[in-house]
Amino acid sequence: MRSLDRLVREARRRPARMAAMAAAVLVLSLPALVFAWTRELPAFDGLKDYRPLISTRVLGIDGTEVFVFARERRTVVPFAEIPEVMRKAVLASEDAKFYEHQGLNWLAIARCAAKGLWRGRVACGGSTITQQVVKTFLLPAEGRVKRKVKELWLAPRLEEKLSKDEILFLYLSQIYFGHGRYGVEEAARFYFGKSVRDVTLGEAAMLAGVVQSPMRLSPARHPEAAKERQRYVLRRMAEEGFLTPAQAEAEAARPLQVTVPPADPPGAWYADAVRRHLDERYGAERVETDGLTVEVAMDPLMQRAAEQALQAQLRAVDRRHGWRGPLQHLDEPQREQALPVWRERLSAVKARPGEVLVWDLARVSSDGIEAESESDIRRMARVRRLEPEGLYTALVVDATDRQATVDLGNALGTFSLAETTWARKWNPTSATAAPRKMRDVVVPGDVVLVRVLAGRKAPVELARAGKPLALALEQVPRVQGALVAVDPATRGVRALVGGYDFQLSQFNRALQARRQPGSAMKPFVWGAAIESRRFTPATVVYDTPDVYRDPWTGKDWKPQNFERNEYDGPMLLGEALAHSKNTVSAKLVDALGVDAVIDFARRAGIESELPRSLSLALGTGEVTPLELVNAYATIAAGGAVASPVTILRVRDRSGEVLEEHIPEPAPPAPVPPPPPTPALAAGTEPPSGAVPASAAPPADAVEPPPTSGMRPEVAFVLSAMMRGVVEFGTGQGAQTLGQPAAAKTGTAQDHRDAWFVGFTPELVAGAWVGFDSHDPMGPRETGGGAALPAWVTFMKEAVGQRVPVPFAAPPRVEFARIDRTTGLLAAEAAPADAAPFVAFLAGTAPASSASERQAPGSAPQTFFQDDR
């Protein structure tokens, strides 16, 4: 019995002994464990070691931030620029005793440990700001216990090395505020559109509140939760004596005002061009992390106008090609499975005052709905604000003979058959029958792209009233395009668009697409002719079909006009350019020689390889849109050639200039001293605002061409002929701009490329439209029909509201009223429409009049006729 009692007592003592032994081992091994974990800790001796990942900020021509390149979007400002209210808000929220402890708040640590033991889980952080700085800057991700031990060890050491202000500065510059923004400066810019130095008390409290959980407390996504957290921060600030209770209550009562930047700001294509240069020059690592400041020539307003103009025109061209069908189709079981999930997703996001939220189903995959989890299906619906003219991917829920109804989540909308007659079977090259009923176009379950129309009543008001929105059926264009705008005086690229949507295709057609310019190449042919002084705008040429033996290819070639078998016979050279006569262009290249035309194009800025054959007359070489627009800018700039400029200046994080490209166009080609013989042709006078030549050289004086660019007088006479394109030629649609403009249309072989490039004295712009595959776009898609509307829409926004600026004539230009039939001086009594004013190089205007033509021995202006 005694032995049994002894055994029982021993059994009872054994757990106690084991616990004691374990405690002893722990106590004895803890110093060794702490030593092992802390013997290789990093050094952090001062702020000189602080090299945060800083965003590269890109500033537009107006000084505003247009885009950012960043791994972590952060902008560091000096501690002195962070206002006291911002510091106190963060301290009240995160570590009110920061300026009192030595890196560790033992009371807070003990309190959190007790809560954790009581609840059986981690109940609170208990970390000071110093500990969070240590964890962020010095400790890698590793086991929680090991990392905590290092954190407790390092925090007091950091306090010995840095002042409290320095530690707080590191914290405020490093913490995450959601939406990819790091540090208080970037957070203030994102949520309020201002620098942190300008934040108010309420804004500072809101920012401080976000720190605890940036996703859950973001005022952009969860305004109610953010407002409640702001109230907590204000209450804590009052408790700590940073402000009075009355101030806290007053600020808490104010509504939360957040100014979040748009989700899709303009400039993705321009940013691509800038990023290419920066990565090549400095490397992607430095661009994303080293805080460069880049000034670019982009005008944000022009860039947005260019993107909108091109997108609208590409949709219009694509509509003419027909309907390719819905993006997806969901059968009834799939709709029953997905719709409740999407509605729950939509209802979980709270709209701000004045907003209506709808879904966008662009991510929907009919093949994946049954196979995907509920969370994956949920992510297929993107939540967006309802906006007039906005594009949304939505679900067709009903289709009658005349109308379709579409579900946008928190709103329904309709589009009618009468407005959807364009949705014939897709075929770019030939017409197909228009749909007879709506079910020929869409059926319930189709996922389609729609545009919300801006009617008399705002779409938000209609949605709130439960009334259907007015919609238009759309589709993502298959046809692509580019639009570039350049300031001719500085060569600053004001806008650059390389396609319909950068998210769908990153191929930057403005820079990378090499396409045939077609007739948009003709200004360089006509310019070479004028520069040669063998031809003038009044030279009579013949629009007739001819067969050439091309000396460069050895083959016979018979160019035709765009109208095929339509030829106008004798006409003035300037009118031949305005009407884009292919036969005349071929005659000029044949007479001048291919090398002379190529040389003229090279001096204007065309760098791409051009064909050494007569087909050069029809623009069979390939150029990029930016290259062609910049060459036209040489004409607009009076002959001064220069490279296009996107990046003006790059500075490092300390402000030192790394590179600078202050636009300084090359001076115009030198003008030889004029001979002493003055005058304009008898009976002529310059138009209003033009400057006549002070002296004219002999008509037969042929000066060698300049080594770069073109002489001002050549550029002016060429641009004067190009104004005829707009006034009475193939580009008359550009007259709606309401500004003096010179331009040229271009349609490449088989309608594979459509161009319109033109300029006012202040801005040069060019639009290109075509398929990436080089497929024909159909006989209706010409430069004047497919590209010109985008140019006009953009230019109206860019310069349409400005006071018109005339084209000023330089010296060595003369003007004469010319008889349209003969190319000679017009009779004084001739009507204006039959005798327009024409610009000439000084000394090349005709000396005789049309009335003298009948005199014995007289001859008209030399006809440019080929009898082959």
What this model shows, in words?
The structure is a single chain. The chain is of the alpha+beta class and 868 residues long. 35% of the residues lie in helices and 14% in strands. The strands form 8 sheets. The protein has a 5-stranded mixed sheet. It has a 5-stranded mixed β-barrel with strand order 9-10-11-13-12. Helix 9 runs antiparallel to helix 10, helix 18 crosses helix 21 and helix 18 packs across helix 23. The longest helix is centred in the N-terminal third of the chain and has 37 residues. The N and C termini lie far apart (138 Å). About 6% of the residues have low confidence.
What features would you highlight for this structure?
alpha+beta, 5-stranded mixed sheet, 5-stranded mixed barrel, 24 helices, 14% strand, globular
Sequence-ordered SSE layout with sheet pairings:
Blueprint lengths: L1 H37 L17 E4 L5 E5 L3 E2 L9 H11 L11 H14 L9 H10 L5 H18 L2 H11 L6 E2 H10 L8 H10 L12 H17 L5 H9 L14 H15 L1 H6 L3 E4 L3 H22 L6 E2 L2 H16 L9 E4 L13 H6 L2 E4 L5 E9 L3 E5 L4 E5 L29 E7 L6 H6 L4 E6 L5 E7 L6 E5 L11 H4 L9 H11 L7 E4 L4 E2 L6 E2 L11 E4 H6 L3 H11 L1 H11 L20 H12 L10 E5 L5 E4 L51 H17 L13 E6 L5 E7 L4 E7 L12 H16 L14 E5 L19 E5 L21 E2 L4
Parallel strand pairs: 1-5, 3-4, 11-13, 16-27
Antiparallel strand pairs: 1-2, 5-20, 6-12, 7-8, 9-10, 9-12, 10-11, 12-13, 14-15, 14-24, 16-19, 17-18, 20-21, 22-23, 23-24, 25-26
Helix pairs in contact: 2-8, 2-9, 4-5, 4-6, 8-9, 9-10, 13-24, 18-20, 18-21, 18-23
